[in-house]
Queue: 2 jobs
Job 1
Amino acid sequence: MKAVLLTGHGGPDMLRYGDAPDPVAGDGDVLVDVFAASINAADYKVRLGGGRYGNLKFPHILGRDFSGVVRAVGAGVNDVAVGDEVFGVTDQGIEGCYAEKLAIKARLVAKKPPRLSHVEAAALGLISLTAVWAIEDTGRLQKNEKILIQGGAGGVAGFAIQLAKHLGATVITTASASNHDYVRRLGADQVIDYNKQDFTTEVSGCDVVFDTVGGAVRAGCYKVLRPGGRLIWIAPAPEGFEPPSDQQTLRPAVNRDRAHLERMLTLLQAGAVSPPTITRYKLAEAVAAHRISEARHLQGKLVFEVRPGA
Ligand SMILES: NC(=O)c1ccc[n+]([C@@H]2O[C@H](COP(=O)([O-])OP(=O)(O)OC[C@H]3O[C@@H](n4cnc5c(N)ncnc54)[C@H](OP(=O)(O)O)[C@@H]3O)[C@@H](O)[C@H]2O)c1
């Protein structure tokens, strides 16, 4: 099969479009023809290496979420069949979606509804699962609460804006001016241009802050949180950062399972959420896609259209 091969840790040029052995469905697996696979911020972090990403065997195939068609099923799989259109997210520590074929546990895929294209389903996989874990399972956001979502134009945050609005919260977000119309369309009640405004003086008394940006932004998040409020994070704070003790600091588990993918489908069916803005790439354009992802100012999602028209 064709795939994007990470040939070593380093810059985008370490990615090469080439040939890789076809995967095989083991017990409990489905073998999928991948029609679309998404690019996540985690992918460039793995590519760069260091820390927990330092022990890869090369060539390595990146990619954590996909949509496609089941071509074979392994022993013990009886709830997914050959020919099913499915989408899903690989288990923690496992990758391989930047490819024409993928073997994945059947319990990690859900049926793709016809109303979603493969590209849309791939775009929604990891971001929706992460946002549901963060906003519902971990933050337990309630109606009429006030939430600040950092980095609203990004994949996870954009989904979180829609979910928080659906749950009845007042939603504030941060974004560059060019993304303000976009995040308002997603449902943000207030948008802060973080390049010109200091969110710590514009916002106060939040019940919840969802930090998808991390780094220097983190300390300010606690300043806008009420005492006892919940800080949920998915992007790390600077090394050595000590969170205040009078507010809660929560990290979502983001376990992969079918139930969370189906929660996204329920939200979609209810009209509560819709797919993000999507920029399409071919697998052979992985270097360009990674440059955009790593620059960290994209809108919505970047997705590989692995089969034309997906
Ligand atoms: N399991 C997990 O824990 C998990 C799962 C998914 C993602 N993550 C992590 O969560 C983070 C976000 O992921 P993602 O895929 O949603 O990222 P993304 O789509 O790559 O988000 C990039 C966005 O961040 C915005 N941004 C950059 N700097 C900003 C700042 N200082 N203030 C506000 N917005 C800023 C940019 O918007 P503007 O152009 O408007 O600046 C851009 O839209 C990443 O670090 C990722 O690794 C963790």
Note: The first strand starts at residue 2 and ends at 6.
Job 2
Amino acid sequence: MNAESSGANEERAYFLSVLSTFRSYREQSLSRIKRKETCLDNLPYHHKQWLKKYKEDLEEITKCIEKNSEFIPLVLRQAHCIFENAYSTEVPSHSEQNVGTLSEGLDKVQSVFKQLMRDWSSLGALERKQCYQPIFEEIFANYPEDKFDRSNIKVLVPGAGLGRLAFEIASRGFFCQGNEFNLFMLIVSFFVLNLCKKVDEYEIYPWIHQYCNNLKVEDQMLSVRFPDVIPTPTPDSGFSMTAGDFLEVYTHSDEWHCVATCFFIDCAPNVVQFIEKIYLILKPGGLWVNLGPLLYHYSDMKNEKSVEPSFQVVMQVIKKVGFELEKCETDLKTKYCQNPKSMLQYEYDSVFFVCRKPISIDNHETDPINGYCDIESSFSS
Ligand SMILES: C[S@@+](CC[C@H](N)C(=O)[O-])C[C@H]1O[C@@H](n2cnc3c(N)ncnc32)[C@H](O)[C@@H]1O
């Protein structure tokens, strides 16, 4: 077997294991409930009496999990279509697979439900306004409709998640491509973007697995409907999603007019690689618009070689790579897949910045080592 076909086999095996994890969602989620019921059954009689309502709550939660489970076969039915080289979706039963791997993946299924809330429900509108709006406004202002044929302006959204940001940009007439490497996201975004035809067609329970910090069980059982809009981009826009690692998929220099990143740059073990790549693929004069925190995703992973520079250092790197900083704001209040009813509310004070690859590197009066802008001043702007 040559290296190429062994790589393809590995990819296929991974794809099938993701399908398997999706399929195990119901069984695994219900077995978690079973464990709670067993725990309850083993309590002293009077505790059980006092916790009667909790037992009833678990029954209601079970119904919501059943409803989430009904949605999964619909998504998987067309999952094989997400790649041109269509895979078969026949998978071995998950009892034959490594249960540890399945339960790790289960977190990913649960986070896809939350991401559906963020990207494609009315309840997610506030989060989208906080996170996506500053990005749209910047892009739309740089390429006004009366001066540009937006269908010729190429915008790339790496780490596109379920695709809403990329879809919105494409809906305004741009050629826009989302890129994503997480198969759980890719399978569900394919479903939303290609197969959802009615507003609010589906109902899901994004936080049904959050057993902590609930004032009442109804908060855990909060449901959302999706999609809040029919995801059909305007006919003349070029909208697409690509699957794969951003660092590997994009290799051509000077290709994109704009790169838009939202809650993405902290997903790299080495953020410098992302910055260099964005610089490489932008056309001279091209724009990079970023919003998000620095929740370095690999930071606590034992076997990952992660670096976690502060924003101050990230800014220095951005300038050393060659970017000109045009805008930099801090303290943007932003949420991420937040249950508005939870007693625990996470809010990021995100950074928002806009920088440009100089049109002509020769004319760029930058000291390549020290960068163009005063680093400290970018914090006060
Ligand atoms: C925190 S999520 C943000 C998703 C979306 N931009 C949003 O704001 O909702 C980051 C996304 O980037 C994806 N991602 C991380 N590293 C990536 C890489 N190297 N190539 C492509 N996608 C990546 C993750 O799978 C995840 O979906």
Note: The chain has 14 helices and nine strands.
